[in-house]
TrEMBL record:
Provenance organism: Nocardia halotolerans
Keywords assigned by UniProt, alphabetized: DNA-binding, Transcription, Transcription regulation
Residue ranges occupied by any HTH gntR-type domain in the UniProt entry: 7-74
Entry-linked Pfam families: GntR (PF00392), UTRA (PF07702)
Highest taxon of the lineage: Bacteria
Protein name: GntR family transcriptional regulator
InterPro entries: Bact_HTH_transcr_reg, Chorismate_lyase_/UTRA_dom_sf, Tscrpt_reg_HTH_GntR, UTRA, WH-like_DNA-bd_sf, WH_DNA-bd_sf
Family annotation (SUPFAM superfamilies): Chorismate lyase-like, Winged helix' DNA-binding domain
């Protein structure tokens, strides 16, 4: 029986492999050759090079700087655990930060009310903040808290710091959480706040946390740039 013909290797893959070899010899912040230079070097169309570079941008290997492209630093890899973004970033040697976008009291919609075990329309505290790592915008976080439990934060909490630390300071301890992760594209407003395009893949996290009594503490929606952050988890065997 004849062997099946070998699959044709896409030209973009070949160009991507060659660019990978170039990046391996460059350091963080070094300039990447231009599209025109790469197209001439490899004897391909600029659109082929553009496609390969777009893949590397999405993966976070390179980033735009001004009108050029440079080698990016490795992604921030966050462990999936019951701690704040601030704590996770510091543990990885990065400098966390936050920019306050909104801090207001709103009426809980049905999903928020269900997660916080409230009646729909009950006032909840809402904080929306841009997450920073070493000054770079990497995420957008919206947190919803039961107002009757955490109204005291209004007079004491600095929204550019860790919210988890402030909640613990009120005597509330986090005991567990349910978290779901999915891939999405950012809405135009979200892309603007994160200084990226709407075509960039995002990681969307939904979290519901409870205290030691099982009472809801928070509902969180976190949107992260897929080119700047990754998540990992420690897994243990379970019995069948």
């Amino acid at each position: 029986m004849d062997s099946p013909p070998a699959a044709r290797v896409p030209k973009v893959f070949l160009v991507r492999t060659q660019i990978d070899a170039i990046l391996a010899d460059l350091a963080e912040g070094d300039s990447v050759p231009s599209e025109r230079e790469l197209a001439n070097r490899f004897g391909v169309a600029r659109e082929t090079v553009r496609h390969a570079l777009r893949e590397l941008l999405v993966e976070g290997r390179i980033r735009r700087r001004g009108r050029g492209t440079v080698v990016s630093r490795p992604k921030l890899t966050q462990p999936l655990s019951l701690r704040s973004y601030t704590e996770g970033a510091i543990s990885l040697g990065r400098t966390p930060g936050r920019i306050l976008v909104a801090w207001d009291d709103i009426a809980a919609d049905d999903p928020t009310a269900a997660d916080l075990e409230l009646e729909p329309g009950t006032p909840v505290m809402h904080l929306e903040r841009v997450l920073l790592a070493d000054g770079e915008r990497i995420g957008l976080e919206s947190t919803y808290l039961p107002l009757h439990r955490f109204a005291c934060l209004r007079g004491s909490y600095d929204p550019t710091t860790s919210l988890y630390a402030a909640i613990r300071a009120t005597g509330v301890e986090f005991a567990g959480a349910r978290e779901r992760i999915e891939t999405v594209l950012a809405a135009p407003r979200e892309a603007g706040l994160l200084e990226c395009t709407t075509a960039l893949p995002m990681l969307l996290l939904h979290r519901r946390s409870v205290d030691a009594d099982g009472a809801p503490v928070e509902r969180v929606r976190s949107l992260y740039r897929g080119d700047r952050i990754a998540f990992e988890a420690m897994l243990s065997p379970v019995s069948a």
